[in-house]
Amino acid sequence: MPRLLDPLPRRLGALWKRIVFGAGPVAAVLVAVRADLPWARLTTVFPPGVAAGITNELRVSGQDLEDPAGLLFSDPRIQATAHDSQPMTFVVRVPAEVDPGMVEVRWAGRFGVSNPRPLVISSGPEWTLQPTNTARADALDFPWDTGVLGRLPAAQSLWFRCSGEPGARASVRVLASELGSRLEPVLRWCSDSGGELGSIRGSCLDFVMPASGRCLVQLQDATYRGGDEHLFRLVATRAPHIGLVLPGVLRAGETNRVTLFGRRLPGGKSSPLDGPDGRPWEMLETEIIAPPLAHSNAPPFNLPRRAASAPLAAASMRWEWASSNGVSNPVLLALTEAPVVSIPPGTSGPGGSLTPVRPPVEFSGLFPRRGEQGGVTFEARKGDVYWVEVWAERLGFPCDPRVIIQRQRGTRGEQGETLYADVLELNDHEANPGGTEFSTVSRDPAGRFEAPEDGTYRMLVWDLFHTAARGGHHPYRLALRRESPDFSLAVLPMPPVRANDNDRAVHAVAPFLRRGQTELLKVIA
Question: Is 147 within 8 Å of 124 (Cβ atoms)?
Fold first, then answer.
């Protein structure tokens, strides 16, 4: 094994002692060194998932992957050794006590440690798919709650067959973007004879078993692409599916009462909300014990995979609901030390509602539909300063929030209506100190509000992407808190020199040090 890597604690200590902040000649020298010495780049890991408690095989691909020293996992309990006879293949041992979820894997070899790739750890059986089921007649029969790991062939689709009790509700879930895959899944639910019964462009398809007790599920890419980088993990399940949780932010260190919205919730009742497929969701109240902020358990790779979402890692938790019919999909819940306010859907009037709050506060709600109002009202004195921030896109929802703060006037209109004056409008957050390598641009608005006068104010919230009078709602989180300057730090390796002026690609670069080397890092505040 090449002596390239010191033990991890020693390497980390040496790293922070030798960080150099510089520009000009220093940067030029280091870039020249980088040009002479290649670095390992990990492109794919297949299959993209392994089962705990058994021995698995992983095959990797990439660039400059020479003289393998092994694979490194974000969970050090997982170990891998090179296969005796198959190149680029590793035997992976996952202890049974490793929790299901996502981990990261890196290559280690002659040219150092590579960039990470995500890997699913499951507690149940996993099948590695040989793509022979590209026609309806060759649909693959597979049991419930078994993960199917595969690649989607280019310009083709894959067919699967489910069997079960007639009228039973179930769903098919696909992991793709979470695995770093280029696949944009489209799922279709068909009768056993092939007639389409429903479809969705997304990662979860809910369906009802037909009278025959058999149905087909088709998986394809939205633009008919495919290949080695179009990985997926597909599972058919009758376990609960959670679409959203209200409130989506919990008070840290306390027991919080929340409402779950989804499908197959034992004891649930009909809700006023529709899912993405246009059918009503079920709703059920339950309690969640939130950990203190210092003990939150959501590492960055369990968050939406965007740099703008990185600060959520220190103030969020990953939660699953265990019920009589299985364990639900995981959901991301934010944590806060401020009071939390939320209102149940369907309790407001036909024109929506504005909820009275007392800052500092966190409000969790749903974006209003066309013709409705949504948001909060509050009292403020002249000179009061608050920081206003909305989370929606950074939580993984396809939203473009807009916020307008208005002050209630002392006069009324001709019809006796209450009049308001605009004070502040907040829209996209465009600050991006990280550039293309660590983009912090977000459609979520944030800004400073200073009350110009004593009085009553209202904060109106809209989603500019979804303005229909009907359809599914998306949730948002709104914080109204005292101004308290703070910052987060991100440390990145410097990107390689661009091939030409038209090179706009984001190149995978791993942060590692060779023995005796000084490296230039990019620090973003």
Answer: yes
